[in-house]
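I would like you to help me understand the sequence and structure tokens below and explain how sequence relates to structure.
___
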Amino acid sequence: MPIDASTQVRPGVDTPDTLTEILLGLRLDGVEYGRCEMHEPWALAFGPSHEARFHFIAQGACWMRTEDTDWEQLNAGDALLMPRGTYHELASSPEVPAVEIDAMARRRLSDNLFLVKDDDNAIMVEGAVAPSHVMFCGSMRFNLDPLHPLLMMMPEVMRACDLAQRDPAVPALIEAMEREVTMDRIGACGIMARLADVLAATIIRAWVECACSDASGWIAAVRCPQIGRVLAAVHRQPERDWSVAELAEVMGASRSRFIEKFTGAVGETPARYVARVKMFQARQWIAREGLRVAVVANRLGYDSEASFSRAFKRIIGHPPSQARLG
């Protein structure tokens, strides 16, 4: 997550809205993108993944379920985001046995762009029978650790119903994605990655605004301006040695009131939350940016590498030296 160390939090002065702060901090790296053309009856199983997954139903109503939820109908224009890559199935009908998505015939269009069809012959033959369902699917990697508190507070499935109708920018976005998926052009992968980034952010925003009545966790924190300011400050400066008093000042409340409200909305104490944010940021610096443990410990304000390593292992479950391997 980009960090601007020069940014200072001024108590009593509102930052941009919390959702904007969070979306600006989230970035996605594209792993794989595809256009799926299916002829009913069909059913696809998407196994658990370390990457986030998204789907946009472009044509034809279908059904979706996870291991913990029953079948739910999706309509053309619906969009789904699985921030933690939860196992799920998509089907033209709940009665159809699911086939693993990786077992489907696919044609590489360029780099990590694929055309997926349910007919081995149709994928090579022009003028084949028109598909009953068309979906845009993708696997993406957040710039945050999958177990980062921000991602863990998100629901398993984020659905933006009739997203194309709610947001006038979405049809143009999907049209652009379709062009990039179906045309083998130079730079298609980079453009798709940016479009997917925007789509995922749009799904998050639409879900927050329109599609969730949950009164706890991440959504409650985002909707609460006071707690939202605190979360934005912590994620903007994870290297800062935040004290409870400083965070209470950002919220504009007494220490006791701040602790009570933060814990009720987020589900853990401010100190625990800040510690987890620091350690997951540390794991990213070590694993993705290749920083030495001593450098990370110093950046996070620890007196010694040993004390940092103990804190890292307590929260992450293994020493920081193993983060580079994972």
Q: What stands out?
A: Residues 1-16, 121-125 have pLDDT under 50 and may be disordered. The longest strand covers residues 28-38. The first helix runs from residue 18 to 25. The two ends are 18 Å apart (CA to CA).
